[in-house]
Predict the 3D structure of the following.
Amino acid sequence: MEHVHVYSNKTLLILSDGVVFEEQLHLYLLDLDNTILDTARISAPYCDGIFHLSSDSTANTCHFLFIGNGLWHITILDRYQWRRPFSEPYGVHRQWGWRQAFSVSYNNMK
């Protein structure tokens, strides 16, 4: 377990595999009954991601460094929002679907 972020009545779990050169982050958003509301995975082939939580996280947003030369942002949404499949940053993998309970974005710092 890398990080737990609680917002309102939701809990975001950020888990890693700990496999060198194939590191992955697994994101799970749970409600009060531990029902999974949304999931995603951040990974890229042959990348050694090192998770580092940023100190500027807010109530509903978690900022961290992982793979790439930028800052990742996970925003917990107050309610489900429409999601266009395949519209997320490179390395973000989700099951097919049209809605999301959290959004993932990436800002390159170069």
Summary: Residues 23 and 51 are 10 Å apart (CA to CA). The chain has a mean pLDDT of 90.
